[in-house]
Amino acid sequence: MVKITIEDHCWHIILNANANEKKSEQNWQEVNTLLQKQGIPYEVHHVARPGEGIATAKSLCESGIRHIVAAGGDGTVNEVVNGILVSGCDTKEVYLAVLPMGRGNDWVRTHHYPNTIEEVIQRWKEGRFLQHDVGKVTTQTPDNQPSSRYFINIAGFGFDADVIYDVTYHKPRFGGSAVYVLSLLKTLFSHKPTPVEVTADGDFRFNGEVFMVIAAICKYNGGGICEAKYAVPDDGLIDLIVVPKLPILKVIAHLKEMFSGDHIDTIKTIRKTLATDITITSPKLLRAETEGELLAFGNYRIEVIPNAINTLM
Asked: What is the pLDDT confidence band of residue 171, given thresholds at 50, 70 and 90?
């Protein structure tokens, strides 16, 4: 744990105007008033298009800024983290706070953030930061053009990513959290197991068809599903969870346990381990995602960067 005095620094807030169906922009004036009341120095940077959060965070770090706030949902946090990591700065010098103004807000669940922005700002004022691990997924595409993406929460392969694909390309006209739930149910009945080979740190191997594979720094994904209840965000390890193919009825029977995380213990066929270096290969299409962003197709290598960045506890 690292402790700093918040008021000693100007904080650069990256506000996603589209988070939570554009409600974050609507709610900004209230947040602005709370920040001024607490005497926290800040500048705000509005972003709206995919990739703009990465570019903004990267530019800030390149200019010497080391105190950043991601205001939005998990996608905003993901973009800001990626911008910081690709900037070339010493990320251990960066302090990242999060104002959860999105819809899912899964990353903050692991860290037990308060329910209101006012309470989050009060916690922020305490200045306690965790030296947080970051994961890195490198995709080796069929044309041998590797691409990398960082993640501070969870990377999902298989079913997880198939749900995101449905949300992205077959989104219904109505909004809200029901969008994800509907896509989850649709995907559950259309999902086909994928043959994969998973290896980790040279001493773990799985070869067979999977429902999904999870590489976790934190615990929650998909709007409150506890996919990795034993994950610790500062232990220098990735929680690897391999869920072999399952009958649909068995998945449905364990849905409630998936929100509590107990499915990891009750579904006996699940394989799990702690790792620092993981590879996932498949002869077929295996989708992958980080924080709702689909990654390039290919084979995957997942690594951990221990204590990469300071995040608000």
From this structure: low
Q: Are residues 47 and 102 in the same domain?
A: yes
Q: Is the CB of residue 99 less than 8 Å from the CB of residue 120?
A: yes
| Residue spans of alpha helices (H) in 177-309 | 178-190, 248-253, 255-260, 263-266
Chain centroid to Cα 125, Å, comes to: 24
Is residue 182 domain-shared with residue 260, that is, in the same domain? yes
For 150-169, b/e burial (b = at least 16 CB within 10 A) is: bbbbbbbbbbbbbbbebbee
Question: Has residue 92 got a pLDDT over 90?
Answer: yes
Count structural domains, the chain. 2
Each residue's pLDDT tens digit, 254-303: 888 988 999 999 999 999 999 999 999 999 999 999 988 999 999 999 99
pLDDT of amino acid 180:
67
> Which tokens is 158 given?
């298989």
Euclidean distance between CA atoms 154 and 218, whole angstroms = 6
What pTM does this model have? 0.92
Q: Is there a single domain that holds both residue 286 and residue 263?
A: yes
Q: What is the DSSP string of 219-230?
A: SEETTTEES-TT
